[in-house]
Amino acid sequence: PVNFRYLDGDVLFRTRPRGALAAAAGTTVSLEVDQIDEPMSEGWSVLVTGRATLIVDPTELEQFADLGIEPWPGGRREALIRIESEAISGRRIRQGSVA
Q1: What is the rounded CA–CA span in Å between residue 53 and residue 25?
Q2: Contact, 83 vs 51, CB < 8 A?
Q3: How far is CA 63 from CA 38, 47, 67, 68, in A?
Q4: What span, in angstroms and rounded, lies between the C-alpha atoms of 58 and 29?
Q5: Which of 25, 52, 57, 95 is the most core-located residue (most Cβ within 10 A)?
Q6: SS3 readout for 26-67
Q7: What is Dmax (Cα atoms) for the chain?
Q8: How far apart, in whole angstroms, are the C-alpha atoms of residue 58 and residue 74?
Q9: Under a CB-based contact definition with an 8 Å cutoff, are residues 27 and 54 in contact?
Q10: What pLDDT, on the 0 to 100 scale, is given for residue 22?
Q11: Contacts of residue 33, Cβ cutoff 8 Å, sequence gap at least 6
Q12: Are 82 and 53 a contacting pair, CB within 8 Å?
């Protein structure tokens, strides 16, 4: 799980500089976001697919510093990754709806 921000069609999140997510930079990745409301038997799911880029430009890093992307896990999460959205899909599930 990652905390992220959706900005101008792209997804931004922080991770460890030498972790698996940072290593995915330069490849096509997908990020899925789900919300479930069990008492109402409803929910939604969104899938964003695009190229992951490690942001290293100081101007961009400064621009995104105030987005408030604070990872929950402990440790330093200094690498900033951008997923440049190429495809966005999803669905909403409602009680009694036909799939």
Answers
A1: 5
A2: yes
A3: 38, 26, 8, 12
A4: 24
A5: 52
A6: CCEEEEEEEEEEHHHCEEEEEEEEEEEEEECCHHHHHHHHHH
A7: 50
A8: 24
A9: no
A10: 87
A11: 4, 45, 46, 48
A12: yes
Q: pLDDT per residue over 8-64, tens digit each?
A: 999 999 888 888 888 889 999 999 999 998 888 899 999 999 999 999 998 888 888
Instruction: Compute the distance between CA of residue 57 and CA of residue 63 in angstroms, rounded to an integer.
Output: 10
Phi-psi region of 26 (alpha: psi -120 to 50; beta: other; left: phi over 0): left
- C-alpha 95/C-alpha 68 separation (Å) is 34
Q: Which residue has the tokens 């939604």?
A: 44
pLDDT tier for residue 99 given thresholds of 50, 70 and 90? low
At 66 the pLDDT is 79
Whether 71 shows a pLDDT value over 80: the answer reads no
Two tokens, residue 55: 């942001």
Which two structure tokens, joined as six digits, stand for 95? 């009680």
pLDDT in tens, 8-20: 999 999 888 888 8
